Amino acid sequence: MSPEEFPGPAAEALAPAGRRPGRRGLLVTGAAAALTLSTVTFAHDASADGASAASGSGTAGGSGTAGGSGTAGGSGAPGGQVARTVTGTLPAGSPDFVYLPFQVPRGVREMHVAYTYDKPAVPTGTQGNALDIGLFDERGTDLGGAGFRGWSGGARTKFFVRSDDATPGYLRGAVRPGTWHVALGPYTVAPQGLRYEVTITLTYGAEAPEPRPVYPPERAKGRGGRPGPAWYRGDCHLHSVHSDGRRTPAEIAALARAAGLDFIHSSEHNTTSAHRAWDGLWGDDLLILVGEEITTRNGHVLALSPDPGTFVDWRYRARDNRFGHYARAVRAAGGIVVPAHPHQTCIGCNWKYGFADADAVEVWNGPWTPDDEVSLADWDNSLIASARSGRAWTPAMGDSDAHRDPDVVGLPQTVVLADELSRKAILAGLRAGHSYVAESSAVSLAFTASGGRGGQAGIGDRLTGVRPGDDVTVRLEVTGAPGCTVRFVTDQGTLFTAPSPIGASGSATVEWTTTPQYASYVRAEVRHPATAQDGGLPGAVAAFTNPVFLGAASPGTGG
């Protein structure tokens, strides 16, 4: 992409005529406006006699009156350290991103950044302070991420980067000379403002060799050891210590195997550092896919298994008209685009980009809650336009979004019909909607529709060869759901509910006869009995399918 298309923080700052941009330069960019503070400088190159001292200004601030102070000490000689501390205040209403530039001399082998900020008391109903942090190297902060070196959001108060290692969430690699940037993200700011302190420490010395990244293989044999068409179970939304999770990749892999999963997807917030953290954890029984959860201020979206190492930027809002560009970039890298928990109520979580660029949508996220009920209903409404027209529809998924104990890996899980246990085949199955969602590996579904001259169609397919008035038999076979109730949902709503719950065996076969004229699609839901905690809503879902469409599409529409 060109700088003209996506101007970044190197763009001209707004300042009075004839004056150079100051520390409060508000940058006009193609995405969210950004505030750039004054540059922090260190010593020049490491001197031969070890007498080089740090120099430069340490003042910076995020408001018109905010000031700061900086201290520096140490030697520029090999093994020596220099540090500078910058303080300032960001006012309420600050831009989404605040960049603190700092000069890195030659001869630096390690960089360490630590930060703190105040959390004053605020009135009930008012947001307090929350400040995220990340890092960009000398290649700059322009959208697209050429200079991206890591992001930890609010999960860490310090991090380091060097050629052979880095804090989880950050990318190891050479600490090259030039202007780097600490990226601050004032997620929320209290009415009193947000006072922050950032300390940057540089350590001089010879760099160690950078290890070659090792990424997971794109194919596994499967639990039976024989690759081939089957229903494969996966959890595509998981967090480790590489973002705001508390589990290591090794712990996640062990929990995935215990949950009966065949594949998992690493989806850390706004970083690719976990892509190379799975060495030795995959196997014939477990396919590991890697991607990113793109955490914007107007919703979260999974970049599901683009090429390993693919970074997708998150520094924009719906009003910036950038999401479509990055959705296309994900697909160009071989991945698919899945809006996550679209109706979750946390700040910035509610999905505001629409679904035109989505390949699937995460309808069920973690244990079943009212926002999942809203997501399911909203997704079902989107099927109606596709049912009659034959135009593209958006399949549903479900994932655990597990971060830490007691979050359950595989609650829920998406069960995909794929030609083999491989990255390409799994993504093709998800994109086609050949899948259902279940609360655990104990629950299995088989769902078909048959009738007329059309034979039989399965989940995600269209039953053709039937006329509007032809009888169609819908059949669901379910196991692992004792006490649950089966119901069939169509474009008119729930048209059939099984007369009695599933017995103690947990297994049942339920059939219903309809016509394409009466129901243009049918999908199945398996629900637990409603409880007082459900607040009048139907019981929690144990499993649901993507739809089977009935009959030919309307004349003159796309197929």
Characteristic key phrases:
559 residues, 11-stranded mixed sheet, disordered C terminus, mainly beta, 6-stranded mixed sheet
Largest sheet: 11 strands, mixed
Shape: elongated
Derived structural class: mainly beta
Q: Overall pLDDT, averaged?
A: 88
Alpha carbon gyration radius:
27 Å
The number of helices is 4
Number of strands: 31
**Low-pLDDT windows of residues:** 1-31, 47-77, 555-559
DSSP helix fraction: under 10%
End-to-end Cα distance, whole Å, is 33 Å
Strand content: 25-35%
Question: Could you walk me through the main structural features you see in this protein, from its secondary elements to its overall organization?
Answer:
With 559 residues, this protein is mainly β. Helix content is 9%, strand content 32%. The strands form six sheets. Strands 12, 13, 14, 20, 21, 24, 26, 27, 29, 30 and 31 form an eleven-stranded mixed beta sheet that branches. Strand 1 and strand 2 (34-36) form a beta hairpin. The longest helix is centred in the C-terminal third of the chain and has 20 residues, at 370-389. The two termini are 33 Å apart.
